[in-house]
Design goal:
- By secondary structure, this protein is of the alpha+beta class.
- It has two domains: about 140 residues, OB fold (Dihydrolipoamide Acetyltransferase, E2P) (Beta Barrel); about 30 residues, no CATH class.
- It is about 25% helix and about 25% strand.
- It has a six-stranded mixed sheet with strand order 1-5-6-4-3-2, with helices on both faces.
- It is elongated and about 80 Å long.
């Protein structure tokens, strides 16, 4: 295929993908950034492997080859992003494990709904929303962390504010004595090194 034809195919594929991305997204579907590290073609599917697992779970996104036109459009974007050192913006449904019928494993893969090449680098929470300080963190850990709302009111945890007031004899709550060599008189004390 000539470079001109390949360029035209990529532009058309990108335009179609952008139209898809403007459609309303059902509640369970979400967009996420993916740095492609592998594009693959199998008899029953095409897939892309992401450098970082999306939401800490989904390393692969796939599309069945039963619709060859759709698979080719997705594959063109996957390869273009991989070769161009760009990110993909993947629309997928994290609750839909139906891709297993074409080899997209339920534990680490989801079916691609829509795909686009991104010019910008997505933030870390856009890729893995389950990391600490990201909106999905507390759901991912079942609220079982001091950073999660309500945790400290129901857990007696040293990492929660006020724990030392409740347990003043806990060795972790007893402050270290001040270093005598760090005060203003330090240079004059015999046990302190002279600068």
């Amino acid at each position: 295929m000539s470079k001109l034809l390949l360029s035209a195919v990529l532009r058309v594929t990108l335009a179609v993908s952008m139209l898809l991305l403007q459609m309303p997204v059902p509640a369970a579907e979400q967009f996420s950034g993916c740095k492609p590290t592998e594009s693959a073609v199998f008899a029953d599917r095409i897939h892309v492997r992401c450098e970082t697992a999306v939401d800490g779970r989904f390393q692969f996104f796939a599309s069945p080859t039963s619709d060859p036109r759709q698979a080719n459009r997705f594959l063109a974007l996957m390869v273009g992003a991989e070769l161009g050192d760009k990110y993909l913006n993947v629309l997928f449904d994290p609750t839909d494990a139906g891709g297993a019928t074409f080899g997209c494993l339920a534990n680490n893969c989801r079916r691609i709904v829509a795909l686009a090449i991104m010019e910008r680098v997505p933030g870390r929470c856009e890729i893995d929303n389950t990391q600490r300080k990201c909106p999905g963190f507390c759901d991912a850990v079942g609220g079982n962390d001091p950073d999660c709302p309500g945790y400290c009111s129901s857990h007696d945890d040293m990492r929660c504010a006020g724990n030392c007031q409740r347990h003043p004899t806990n060795p972790e709550c007893i402050p270290e004595p001040p270093d005598p060599c760090s005060g203003p008189q330090a240079p004059h004390l015999p046990q302190c090194p002279k600068h």
